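Handoff note, outgoing to incoming analyst
You'll be picking up this chain. Sequence as last confirmed:
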Amino acid sequence: MLEITRIPYEEKTILSSLIQLYRYDSSEFDGHSLNPHGVYLYKYFDHQWTESHRYPYLLKVDGEIAGFVLVMKGVPREFVKVSQAEETNVISEFFVMRKFRGKGYGKQAAHTIFRTHPGAWEVRQTKGNQPANRFWNRVIGDITGGAYTEVRLDNESWRGPIQVFEVKE
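Most recent structure output, in case you need it:
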């Protein structure tokens, strides 16, 4: 059974550990490197608890930690890449541990997050991350009945595909 809960500040070390796994896993696509101390840095880590529009979620399957989702809710137009909505929700980061992939938990988590925060959405993938792109096209196509747009940017603001869609309440 999938459980999705907000990560409280007091448990931020859990997210810190998961970000290391996520950055390692995605480094083949985004080129992130370890710092001299052997750690992947995440620029917006502390922002998850200091900015009111950020929502860090922990995923658990049958009580076992399975991943995380970082959401930005109601982002103004000047901070999104493609959406023309006044405010847009954005999946900042989405990670399901390999053990739990291919079992429907990622799709279930994404649908729950989208329904928790209805409205306009943007979901971005790093250029070259074909597995993530296939996943998001399936998941977003399912929740929207195919009513979404995928745009591919290749400029200084973003390099890769972006799905833009709306989830009704």
